[in-house]
Design goal:
By secondary structure, the protein is an alpha+beta fold. It has ten helices and 14 strands. The chain folds into two domains: 237 residues, Hsp33 domain (3-Layer(bab) Sandwich); 61 residues, HSP33 redox switch-like (CBS domain Like, Alpha-Beta Complex). The chain has a six-stranded mixed beta sheet, covered by helices on one side. A five-stranded antiparallel beta sheet has the order 8-9-2-1-10. A three-stranded antiparallel beta sheet has the order 13-12-14. The longest helix has 22 residues.
């Protein structure tokens, strides 16, 4: 069973999360086997994204979907991991070119520094006119040097968006997608430091930073093979046996796809009558496959006519018109 564990270090402003996606990750890969599966390097990237999405979703109080996307100018045009508030998740990638063995992140999506990482928060109950919140970060550093590590990209995003230092370790193979997140928490009453002596404030901040740095450094010693093969108890004991911490009840991420006939109909409706009629004239029907779960949706001429006479309110998935 997939599992996500939250924990906090006793007396320190530092928290952590560890996720191991097993059955849920294997289900994502199984759904892709019909299309021939992913190249190894793409599978690793998508697995890391899925584990990261689960960690980020469980790290916020938000009633909506968290959507992590990476896109650019390499053979992987788009990779998407989506996680709902109940930790149901799905993921997919669009590969349009040849992926060479051993390809790095920049070789997959960022050949000419056009790669971007977008994190979207899409509320379930939108207010009138409300748009999803989206943050975008480039796949290169301040000096435009290419970043080859997804963890580093997301650490930079979380520092920008939450102003909190974060250490993120990610790994994936054909059986497990896993991740460890360590984050420095804001200190209660920190806003009152301005009224104290600068010396006292600086001493407090130095102590806070040292606690976080020590624990983040321990987390950084975790090897990829350990993250993929060891159970949660063993990992936490090996890393933090000298750091008292409190663990909470584990959560259970699961595979789940939100596609539906209504949402596909809404997508077709957005294409317009002329486009749909031309497809029907050529093929006699419209076939749509969900890129996340592989579900097939068929619309004959009568079905197609009905989608333009009935208002469909839901948003569409990312489909492929065949």
């Amino acid at each position: 069973m997939s599992e996500l564990h939250k924990f906090i270090f006793d007396g320190l402003p530092v928290r952590g999360m560890l996720v191991r996606l097993t059955d849920s990750w294997q289900e994502i890969l199984k759904r892709r086997q019909v299309a021939g599966g992913y190249p190894l390097e793409v599978m690793h990237l998508l697995g890391e994204m899925t584990a990261a999405g689960a960690l980020m979703q469980s790290n916020i109080k938000f009633n909506g979907a968290l959507i992590l996307q990476i896109f650019g100018d390499g053979p992987v045009k788009l990779a998407v991991a989506e996680v709902q508030p109940d930790l149901s998740l799905r993921a997919t990638a669009t590969v349009t070119g040849t992926v060479d063995a051993g390809s790095s992140l920049s070789q997959l999506v960022n050949l000419n520094n056009e790669g971007r990482c977008a994190i979207t928060l899409d509320p379930k109950d939108k207010l009138p006119g409300q748009q999803p919140y989206q943050g975008v970060v480039p796949l290169y550093g301040d000096g435009r040097e290419k970043i080859e590590n997804l963890s580093e990209v997301l650490e930079h995003y979380m520092l920008q968006s939450e102003q909190l230092d974060t250490r993120l370790i990610l790994a994936a193979d054909g059986n497990v997608a896993a991740g460890l997140l360590i984050q420095r928490l804001p200190v209660k009453g920190q806003g009152n430091l301005a009224g104290r002596l600068d010396r006292e404030a600086n001493e407090d901040q130095i102590g806070i930073n040292e606690d976080y740095k020590r624990i983040a450094m321990l987390a950084g010693t975790l090897k990829r093979e350990e993250l993929l093969t060891l159970d949660v108890d063993t990992i936490l004991r090996r890393l933090f046996w000298e750091e008292p911490h409190t663990r909470f009840e584990p959560l259970s991420p699961s595979f789940g796809c939100s596609c539906s006939r209504e949402r596909v109909g809404n997508m077709l409706r957005s294409l317009g009558t002329a486009e749909i009629e031309s497809i029907i004239a050529e093929r006699g029907k419209v076939d749509v496959a969900c890129e996340f779960c592989g579900a097939q949706y068929e619309f004959d001429p009568v079905d197609a006519a009905q989608i333009f006479t009935h208002q469909i309110s839901q948003q569409p998935p990312t489909p492929t018109v065949q």
